[in-house]
Design goal:
With about 350 residues, this protein is α+β, with helices and mostly antiparallel strands. The chain is about 35% helix and about 15% strand. InterPro entries: AmpC-like, Beta-lactam-related, Beta-lactam/transpept-like.
Length: about 350
């Protein structure tokens, strides 16, 4: 199965509707102060629309800062779907099971850990059902002890800290969202594979799927890539790559950047799998990733309503915003990426989404 020749179907339409959609996106960008926006509409056999508009920084209209189809956008928590995808690859390779318990791999930690975590599994961690503290705000990270070493070594220390910590109280919600849970899940797949998460990303995305990616913000590897933006003194400002903002402890939960074209190929693989066709992963694996658990499965939220099945995810580190929706029933997927994440920008994003969906009567 691993030697399968992967064919990605790209058919970009630049007809009248595409031009009109670009004008609408550009208008929304002005209205909601979005420096750069990218979007794609995906079918099982084609990428129908793909556009990138605007500028890398709100302060610049220079030619070198103009939007480019090859620009990278930070995925934020949409990285979780990629980590889940890598876990699925290892499950299919019989390296690990979804039901594998954390302490079966790390028995030496069990006695000094919180008993509430004794039975947590890979599946629990990836579906936010392990009751791990959320670590969705910067304040939580400020309270941590100082971890040292490589990124993988620091995540190991972070995970050991987490399983000793207090569990999230059980309430009436289906799941308790946790970035930190993905760090612990990553420790499990690093153990069974004998390699780091970063190396696994390279193996699966770059070597096997031929997809480009970067760790961290786009402007940290190339200065004339998109800059993220946030509000300073009531005004939207671009964020320097030099600012101290470190997501490495929860990198597998939300710190990849990808070009729209390549991210769209990844999303299309999921759409094809949900349609019932095996590709890099088996079709039944895609079904599990998206719908194996109610409301939130493995890196994807899901809704089943009136015979319509939709999986989606939003991701943001506060400086970029990415939203992806896969309509399994109508066999369409939609991606919108922006280099800011303000409330107004998100309003513009979801207005554009509705317009994109209306084209197909959705």
């Amino acid at each position: 199965m691993r030697n399968i020749y992967l064919t990605f179907f790209i058919l970009c339409s630049f007809g009248a509707y595409s031009q009109n959609l670009s004008k609408i996106a550009d208008s929304l960008s002005v209205k909601y102060e979005i420096p750069e926006i990218a979007f794609a509409i995906i079918s099982v056999d084609s990428i129908n629309e793909m556009q990138t508009l605007g500028f890398h920084k709100i302060e610049s209209r220079a030619k070198e800062d103009a939007a480019n189809i090859n620009d990278y956008f930070h995925l934020g928590s949409n990285t979780k779907a990629i980590t889940g995808f890598i876990c699925a690859y290892l499950v299919e390779e019989n390296k690990i099971k979804w039901e594998t318990k954390f302490f079966d791999l790390f028995p030496q930690w069990k006695n000094e850990s919180n008993k509430a975590f004794y039975d947590i599994t890979l599946e629990d961690l990836l579906s936010h059902r392990a009751r791990i503290q959320p670590f969705t705000s910067g304040d939580e990270y400020l309270k941590l002890p100082k971890f040292r070493g490589t990124k993988s070594e620091k995540r190991r220390q972070f995970s050991k800290y987490l399983v000793k910590s207090q569990a999230v109280e059980i309430n009436d919600t289906t799941y308790n969202y946790s970035n930190a849970g993905y760090s612990i899940a990553t420790l499990m797949i690093e153990k069974v594979s004998g390699t780091t998460w970063e190396e696994l990303v390279n193996l699966v995305l770059k070597e096997k799927l031929k997809l480009n990616y970067k760790f961290g913000w786009p402007n940290r590897f190339q200065i004339n890539q998109p800059w993220g933006h946030w509000i300073e003194n009531d005004a939207l400002k671009s964020v320097s790559p030099e600012i101290k903002y470190d997501l490495s402890l929860a990198e597998p939960a939300g710190d990849l950047s990808m070009q729209l074209r390549d991210y769209a190929k990844f999303v299309q693989l999921n759409l094809i799998g949900l349609e019932g066709t095996d590709n890099f992963l088996k079709s039944k694996t895609y079904e599990y990733l998206h719908y194996g658990k109610s409301e939130y499965s493995i890196g994807w939220g899901n809704v089943k309503e009136d015979n319509i099945e939709i999986s989606d995810h939003a991701g943001s580190d506060g400086t970029f915003f990415c939203y992806t929706q896969i309509d399994k029933t109508r066999k369409k997927a939609f991606i919108i990426q922006m280099n800011c994440a303000t409330e107004d920008a998100q309003k513009g994003l979801f207005e554009l989404l509705e317009i994109m969906k209306n084209k197909y009567g959705i």
